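Researcher: I'm preparing a figure for a lab meeting and need a structural model of a single chain. I don't have an experimental structure, so a prediction will have to do for now. The sequence is pasted below. Please return the structure as tokens so I can convert it later.
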Amino acid sequence: MGSNAVTAISVGLCLVLVSVYFASDSYLIFQNLLVSTGLNENSYVKRALNFLELSEENQDSTKSSNLKESSKSTELLLTYEELKSYDGGPNSDGLYLAILGEVFDVRKGAQHYKPGGGYSFFSGKDATRAYITGDFSEEGLIDDVSDLDSKSLASLEDWLSFYKEEYEHVGKLIGRYYNKNGDPTKELLSIRQKMNSVKENKYTEAKNKELFPPCNSEWSKEKGSKVWCTKKSGGVDREWVGVPRELHVEGKDPRCVCVKNFGPPSSDLNAQRHNNNGDLDHPGLREYTGCLPSSESCDVSHP
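Model: Understood. Here is the structure written out token by token.
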């Protein structure tokens, strides 16, 4: 074995030892040293470097996995009966409440949630339904929301966000929404699906409002109804005014919208070839009778 090989092996072993026993930046220091001496091209040293690099990646992956497991293992899993003992009373174990099976420590807001507080009826239980219905009777302070529609369930997302921001999340409630292992039940997954559906619909409606902002409108006994467009009509700020059109969407009442009437369609803003009609070719749009197609205002009914 040549002297270069011996040197390379020695340096490689030193690199391994230092990287194991010292800070991670020692690895970078030795790597730079090897580059400056040209030994980084030696096959023995390359193998040592590759080994250390893989070892570091495995350690990072293991740490990340351990953190997740640690987080899950420290999470409380309470039964309904156990949660009752966290109502903030004289002999209680603390001050907890649950919403959609998520348990929060609300001691920070004890003035509201302890016995005698304005929201004490939420403490020590999961009263998800009451957050939606506003029914704070004993019959209303329950966790069952299976008979409520998707639109009603949408507000739960806001309540969950509020508690996650304001209070400490400490665990889950075993029962309707989580099993004994802390995994979501079919009922919870179904509710989340409904909530996500509403969220997606709201997003779609918001995008449609940007595409077709509502018209300004007024009515008087003398003049009847008038609709018109501006750069801020419908509460949507934009760089164009548009022209009034009646938008027909299946399952909804027709409504007046302002439509961009120049340039490429919004569905393909990068189109090289277009009719310079903006979005006027949308199949759901109708012109108002007696109103010029290019007019920014229309009298839609007369007294």
